[in-house]
Structures are given as structure tokens and as C-alpha cells.
């Protein structure tokens, strides 16, 4: 979301631009430039009096910014500026290591684990026979107690013979390196957008239909695929920044989403 450019008076006037749109721009600038994350904004009554508009106009403007993720409502407390989005690093760093690097406390809630026959796309990615089982791990990832991502991971059964011996609430990458000598050295990753279904929305503490960033990553060790991981990240908490150059792209296998897995 972007706010208006240039200098504009913080007032709402009669004209071709709807008043709720003008007020949205004012509140947008206030949230982006004046108030730190987690700060309360003035009440609907205060805003209506300050800008000489109706409460309905205020409610509409605030509602748009809540939908866009810049503001968040807390029942019984008011409306607050939302936490700034974190840049998601496109690297092989684990979620645990990444959160600790940011000074946050990582945590994981295990939603399911064990051996089962994977979907056909995963079996192909891991080079498994059609009926061969793989190790499966379903987790909710949190930082400072805030749910940020839901993960579905599949692991090659001969590279990762079992998950039961591992502490699945801690960094899986660190334990795979320590116990099995597995250190992922290459990966193909595809990114796309989705709307949160009811189950994922409930886990992440967002509304059904909220925007998500989805990452599917196939990670390998010395050219052999070991992990097929899909992660659903909250779109209101994450953004992706990357450096681009004019070099020709590498070739690689295509996934069923039309990109590289």
C-alpha cells in the first residue's frame, strides 16, 4: 500500500474525491510516518470531530486500512497501527535461526508428524516410487508468541529415516545436521499468493480470505532432493525483497504451479 505523494494539507474538503478516501490517505500518512507500530490511533469520535466528517466516513476509512493491513482492530481496546512487515530472506537459513537473528524468540507447535505416502507432486520432487512413504511434518511457527507461518514438510525416507527422535519444536535443520550430517546446500523455491482458508486462518489468527505468501522449496544435499517444504506466511507480516541483475536465469525443473519448485 502506498500513500499520496507530495505535500497535502491534513484536512478533508468537499470535492470530487470521496471524503472517506481523503481521510484514508490522512490516516495512512499518520500510520506510516508519525506513529510507531502498535500505537493507538484516535477514536472514531475524535477523528470525526477533528476532520469534520461523519462517523460512517471515519469507519469506512479505517476499515479500508484494516483490510490493507496497515491498521489492526483489537476488540475492546481500539484500533492500532500494525506491526511492520519483515523482509523474508530467500536463503537456506532456518526459521528458528532467522527469528533469532532478528532478536525474536522462535517457537513451533507440532500439528502432525509421521510416515505416510506423499502427494504425487512431492513423490516426483523427492524421486520416490509411487507407493513409497516419506517423513511428514506439519508445524505452526511463531515468533515472540505471534503465529507467523504454517509449514508442511516432506522428507526423503532414506535421508531422514525418522522424526520421532528429534525435538520437532526446535530447529529441524540444526538437528538434521547434528544427527544425520545433512546440510542443505541448494534449493529451488517458488513463491505465489493465496487467500487464507478457514483452517489456516484459524491457526494464524487472521480472518478467512486474508492474503498469504506461499513458498514451496525443494532442498537438496549434494544434488539429491531431501526436503519438499511448503510454507504459508502471513501477508500482513512479511514482504519479499530481492536483488535483480541482468544475468540470464538458470534452468531448472518446473513445478505444477508454473514456476521452479
From TrEMBL:
SMART domains: HTH_GNTR, UTRA. InterPro entries: Bact_HTH_transcr_reg, Chorismate_lyase_/UTRA_dom_sf, Tscrpt_reg_HTH_GntR, UTRA, WH-like_DNA-bd_sf, WH_DNA-bd_sf. The keyword Cell wall biogenesis/degradation does not apply. The keyword Metal-binding does not apply. Keywords: DNA-binding, Transcription, Transcription regulation. Transmembrane segments: none annotated. PROSITE patterns: HTH_GNTR. GO terms for biological process: negative regulation of DNA-templated transcription. It comes from the Bacteria. GO terms for molecular function: DNA binding; DNA-binding transcription factor activity. This is GntR family transcriptional regulator. It comes from Prauserella muralis.
